Amino acid sequence: MNKEKGKLVSPRKDDVVVPPRRDDVVAPPRKDDVVAPSRKDDVVAPPRRDDVVAPPRRDDVVAPPRRDDVVAPPRNYNDPQGYNHSANTNNNNKSYNHNQSASTSNNNTTKDSEQIKTPKVGIMFYISGYLFWMILLFVLMGDFSVFGKLLVTVYTLVTNYTFCWFADYQRYKGGAAAVFFDRALTTSVSATTASGMNHTKETVTRSWTGGYNVSSRRSISQTLMTFLITFVVLEFFKLLINMPIALYSVFTHKKTLKKYTELVTERERYR
Question: What totals of helices (H) and strands (E) does the chain contain, helices first?
Answer without folding.
Answer: 7, 6
